[in-house]
Amino acid sequence: QQPVQSPQAVILREGEDAVINCSSSKALYSVHWYRQKHGEAPVFLMILLKGGEQKGHDKISASFNEKKQQSSLYLTASQLSYSGTYFCGTVVWTSGTYKYIFGTGTRLKVLA
Amino acid sequence: SQTIHQWPATLVQPVGSPLSLECTVEGTSNPNLYWYRQAAGRGLQLLFYSVGIGQISSEVPQNLSASRPQDRQFILSSKKLLLSDSGFYLCAWITATEAFFGQGTRLTVV
After folding, report:
1. Could you say which of A18, A27, A42, B21 has the lowest number of CB atoms within 10 Å?
2. Residue B34 to residue A30, Cβ atoms within 8 A
3. What CATH homologous superfamily does A4-111 map to?
4. What mean pLDDT comes out for the span B32-61?
5. What range does the domain containing B68 cover?
6. Residue B91 in contact with residue B74, Cβ under 8 Å?
7. Is B56 on the interface with A (CB under 8 A)?
8. How many distinct structural domains can be found in chain B?
9. Is B103 left (phi over 0), alpha (psi -120 to 50) or beta?
10. E strands within chain B?
11. Cα–Cα distance measured from residue A48 to residue A65, given in angstroms and rounded to the nearest whole number
């Protein structure tokens, strides 16, 4: 039931690009993306609400394809500060109620 | 403004001791509140969520429990901690458009 993210981990050099994918076996109505630094709470990056929607935040953008039940996070010209673990999050309807769950996570390390 | 407070930040407890982590929210009413646990190097596992006072849904069988005595207060408890309860605990308030997290509690059971 937990959304699956790929890749599990990625190492980049500064200035390189990366794509992180989030796939769900259940229908996605919205997708949130977060970045978590070690030992800290996740930081909310953005939300995508509509099929095919794309959003941007600095050099980080994301797309959401509700038909494919997938979302992707695009990191362009990566900076050292981008290092951390990225999670997607989504609301699922189960047992007569909504609940919020996170994806499996992707560890990103940017090297100088 | 909308804020969420969680305490304590760190906790070292012996096996078999009780636990109480508290989370409070400001700037809203009737928030949807969540408790997650994160083991070292792992993802965020949903433990409990609550859509209102006295309403608690449990995700995994364990020796933890949760309560919501007031609209903006969410408490995670245990009567007897196990070594496997160690981890990073996060309280979250999640809306349709945004998520707010407490600072997290690093719990070490020794």
Report:
1. A27
2. no
3. Immunoglobulins (2.60.40.10)
4. 89
5. 3-109
6. yes
7. no
8. 1
9. alpha
10. 3-7, 10-13, 19-26, 33-38, 45-52, 55-58, 64-70, 73-78, 87-94, 99-101, 105-109
11. 10
Q: What ranges do the domains of chain A cover? A: 4-111
Inter-residue contact A66 to A51 (CB < 8 Å): yes
Beta carbons of A40 and B105 less than 8 angstroms apart: no
Distance CA A37, CA A82 (A): 9
Provide the shortest C-alpha distance from residue A110 to chain B (in Å). Answer: 17
Say how far apart CA A49 and CA A31 lie, in whole Å. Answer: 7
**What's the pLDDT band for A95 if we cut at 50, 70, 90?**
confident
**What chain A residue is nearest to B100 in terms of C-alpha separation?**
A44
Mean pLDDT of A3-31: 94
Cα dihedral: A94, A95, A98, A100 (round 10): -60
pLDDT score, position A92: 81
